[in-house]
Design brief:
Elements (H helix, E strand, L loop, with lengths): L11 H12 L27 H17 L6 H13 L3 H16 L3
Length: 108
C-alpha cells in the first residue's frame, strides 16, 4: 500500500505526519524538502490555525495531486486543498486530514 505509517492512529498529529510522509514518497520524519513531515508541525493547527500550518497541509495535498494526475480521486484532494484555506478551527483540519487519508488509500 502506498500510504505511510500512523494514518490509522488515534492522535490527529500522528495522522497528519503519516499523510505528509506518504505525500513525499513515505519519507522519514522531517524527510520532505520543507520539513513538514512531523507530528510537531501539527501544533500549527492547535488553538489558532497558523499560515505555516495551512501551507504545510496544502503543500502535501498539492504534492499528492501532482503525483497522481490521472486518478479520479484527485478531485477530492483538490477540494480539500481549497478547504485548508477556509478552515476555522482544529476540527476542520482534522476532518481534512482524515478525508485526505481516505482518498490516499484509494490512490493505488
Amino acid at each position: 500500500m502506498k500510504y505511510a505509517i500512523f494514518i490509522d492512529d488515534d492522535d490527529p498529529a500522528f495522522r497528519y505526519e503519516g499523510l505528509v510522509r506518504a505525500a513525499f514518497d513515505n519519507c522519514g520524519k522531517y524527510g520532505d524538502p520543507f520539513k513538514y513531515a512531523a507530528q510537531e508541525v501539527y501544533d500549527n493547527f492547535v488553538g489558532e490555525i497558523t499560515l505555516r500550518g495551512r501551507r504545510a497541509l496544502s503543500t502535501a495535498l498539492i504534492k499528492l495531486i501532482v503525483d497522481n494526475p490521472e486518478n479520479k480521486a484527485i478531485d477530492g484532494l483538490k477540494s480539500l486543498e481549497n478547504d485548508v484555506w477556509e478552515a476555522k478551527e482544529q476540527q476542520d483540519i482534522i476532518k481534512i486530514i482524515d478525508e485526505a487519508i481516505e482518498i490516499l488509500k484509494r490512490l493505488e
